[in-house]
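Attaching the record inline, Q. Sequence:
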Amino acid sequence: HELFMRVFTPSEAYDFKKDAKGPRCFRHVWLKQYRWICYSPHLKGALCKYCVIFPQPVHRGFQGAFITAPFLKYRDFHNSARKHSLTTCHKQAYDDATNFINVRSHPEQSIVCQVNSAVKHQVEENRKKLYSVLSTIVFCGTHDIALRGKTSTSGNVQALFDFCIESGDEILKNHLKNAPVNARYTSVRVENELIVLSGFSVIADESADISGHEQLSLGVRFVDLTITPVKIREEFLGFATLKAVDATSIANVIMEQCIKFGLNMDKLYGQGYDGCSTMAGKEGGVQAKIKEKYPRAIFVYCASHKLNLVVNDLKAVPDIRNAIGSGKAIIKFFRESPKRRSLIPNVPLLCETRWTAKYKSIRVFSENFDRIFQQLRDLVSTASGKISQEAHQLLCCSSTSTFLFCLVIMATYSARLEPLTQALQAVEMDIAKAHSHVQELIQIIQRKIKQITSIYNIDNLAAEALTWFDVWSGKEKQDFQNGLLDLLPYTDLIPAVRQAILIALTLPVTTCTVERSFSSMRRVKTWLRSTMTVNCLSGLCMMSLHRDIVNENRPQFIHEVIDKFAQDHRRLQFLFHAN
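Structure, as predicted:
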């Protein structure tokens, strides 16, 4: 303590030139500019008083000038002094010296308390460093951005680090510049590590990613009884890579993932998949394999897939099939050329996988058919060569009575199917409400069949008005607007009925929640980043799909991630434990 408090300080009149071995000498002003420097008349050079008295376990390249030997190359003094002040060994020596002086200067305080204070300060500094790294990763995850490029030294996350440093993030700059390579926490392994009830149902679907690997998207549906009012929730849990696509392998992966997330499999009441034989097979499908082990897990065929298959059966009618083909050809003809595309309103392509888009395409095409037909007629006479010939062929097929009749039929019933398809995709939809919606549509169609003779007198606006009347005329007066959810408050004294309603609410209606994750997967896992691990992929997609939760309280989210990350042994300390 006395050594620190009474370090030799030469006066301003001290003649440094007599100590110099070259044309340049030490300057007195440097003692004020760099408080850690002291001058030794005996060694005739500058030393770091902290590193000399509290030497650190240093590695090759750090010891030498300022520590074990005086600094004498005054020509490069400022650059060398700045480099030394930023080294890890100097910072640690400074902390040790400061703690030592505080302990000796305040003997009334407990040494344990003062040491804890120093450790707490170091933990806070380490957490600030990791906070900057995590903020960048969270930004990538919530904006569907892959972290790295083809190699681990390139990519978006490194570019964002550089951008943050250029914008003035001194904490991140000093951390990446001065921290040891194995303690920066920006490696691929660490990124993957950072990113990674009353009853529930499992929802699953699979799709190939950009690198050709089959990814199983897994989600759960459950009733959240912890909030008021009670709410049905469907949550995406992540992806799992499938090594095989047979029913047994997929079923095992689903059960393993559920157990991994800590779900009580005895509370598994439902399964929701599409209708392919691998998933829905009665004897050897995934649903059958899981039901063998968990008999309560009722399989529910995705209602949206089932409705789409019913609609696709219309293609068995040759006239309908030909009309759809002609409509696709006309839309493609106008969309493939920017000049022709500007001649008509924007008509979406008929998309087989996005059901609402398909109905919208038919509806928009029908609403603008007069203009489309007129533009085809004009192109026949004004265009030349192949364009005129193709326009003539499309004009001929679209002017037949059969095509016009089929277009009216498709437009009329697409207007009724579009709201039903959208309603089925809602998370709040339950089995009872889905059945009610479908029955209403069936009744409307049956009544329309009986009135087929008057169909030609109904325009689109009148059809929508009648549809609205038909829907509500079949309803009884009731107060239950939210289906089975509204019945729960009346079941407190009848627990068996309450449990039955909860199970019914838990059963999935569609697999839309997990199918939405594939859009996020295709945005994150791209041609530029096709070798991403499944843990990293799941983490980024979860942040993307749950960005509302992440962004709602981002600082708290990042600190919770740091707490979890710090539970394993780390080179830097991120948690403070008071003794």
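Confidence is low (pLDDT under 50) at residues 108-115, 181-196. Residues 308-473 form one domain.

More tomorrow.
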